[in-house]
Sequence to fold (361 residues):
Amino acid sequence: MPLIRVDATKGRSEDEIRNVLDSEAHLSGFNEVSDAIQFLVSDAETFAAVQIDTRDSFAADVITGLSARHKQLPPKYFYDATGSRLFEEICRTDDYYVTRSETALLRNIAEELAAGIPQGAALVEFGSGESAKTRLLLDAAPQLSAYVPIDISADALDQASAMLARDYPQLSIAPVVADFTGHFRLPAAADGRPRVGFFPGSTVGNFDRDGAVRFLQSARRILGDQAALLVGVDLVKDEATLSAAYDDSQGVTARFNKNLLIRINRELGGDFDPDAFDHLALWNPVHSRMEMHLVSRKDHIVNAAGHTFSFRSGERLHTENSHKFTIDSFAQLAARAGWSVANTWISDEPRVAMFRLEPHP
Ligand code: AVI
Fold:
């Protein structure tokens, strides 16, 4: 069993640390998640001493992904400190319309969204990051009593929570350090309150279809029967707009993609030469998704995580899928997870959508 390591445990409650342990153990491929946690938690004198070594699952995923016939890596590994900063930069480019369109849409519909939030409710945000878009909702819905941001990055959560606590003193802010795709428990601040989930940014598009259904099912379980879930989704559109968004003219997305190789070099003792790869963004009409790849410029050998991998000239390493939906295709996906579409709002061009989902009656 790998040693599990939780970073930044100081000052975290037992529940918060358990949440991280739970999701990390799950990501590391334990079937008996609760046993693994039991063992690790009870084995430690203090919770601060319990550590999840996320490098174990990173190494395992890199070895598996680079050994596959079609080389691939999970996109969650984009987001180290540099990757998170580059993603913020992508969101500010002219070509990446998703953030701009969704923010403008949220600004327009904030009052309508707020009207569907019950008195005393808890807003639960999945993958909150800087919580930038959340402020639009918080400003429009003073009836909210609690805000529960969930994010794997303790630093991002701490910073965002401190700023929100300063700006919304009436709100109880209860951050949860966890991978929102894993298992975690909501903090006491959400107990006994109606819950509204918030999942903007079209991140749901980064899952494969089954993964998206699993996430929506777990959100349904976590939020409960009286809940609503507000989900931001990118819509299918012309290929030129999509391609420019994932291969922006300033080259920020290319740097974001190649940063994955730099992360492997740093964390897993790799010797990737990022210049030996080209960034490739392409539209896959069969799966209705934008794909990102890194294409080897030459035949060469790379060492990483104690293994050797050979790349042929022109061979692709598949690094991300970003699914694009129609109103119907997303409604069908949500229905598979037990949600019905109660309302849909669509932005100006380039179009993205915001859905209000409610549990099937
Ligand atoms: C985080 N996610 C929704 C982004 C997307 O559009 O799929 C990640 C991204 N990849 C390239 N550009 C942005």
Observations:
- The longest helix spans residues 97-115.
- Residues 1-8, 28-55 have pLDDT under 50 and may be disordered.
- Residues 90, 98, 201-203, 205-206, 246, 253, 320, 322 surround N,N-dimethyl-L-histidine (CB under 6 Å).
